[in-house]
Give the backbone structure.
Amino acid sequence: MPSTEGMSRAPATACPHTRSRSRVLHTARGRRSEAGFTIIEILVVMIIMGALAAIVISSFRGTRSAVNSRTVIAVATTYATGIRAFQLDHGNRVPNPAVARDWPRGAAAGNPLHDRGPLDELGRHYLRNGAPEPMQSGTSVLIDSASAIPAGGGLLDSYIRYERVSETAYTLEIVIWDGDSWNSVCKVGDAVGGPTC
């Protein structure tokens, strides 16, 4: 057998198709050398981000509604205190919204009840420190049972509806806009025996 020690080998020439195919196979098996993302990867990330955004938005909406409900319930309790003071001064009679000297109308559209509550014998409102915040900011309105609540939400978040059930009993119903419809969430007053929240 002849010896190959002194002989030089000619470099092997490979087919160009074989070389590129082997490079594609190597790239598919190993790490990619090019920088960037594929369209599939970008779409998957966008879908995940959209799902997370939907979860955050829905939880924020629920939190906002819950905070609004608690705020308006506190406001209704403030009005209940004013009505109770009126009852103490008037022999347990509750204010009649049809009588201006009991509870005058406010200046807002729809002619709601005055947001500082009923009047005492001297013509002063029982809520002497002013209307509660949701009433001042215009996100809530105090109405009587004869007033209708509009179909859509509009700019308002809530209504407090005063109903004179009898000469000595009343309810304050809290109606909240949840983004889709009006919902009665609570009643406060003599006729219901305390808050029903």
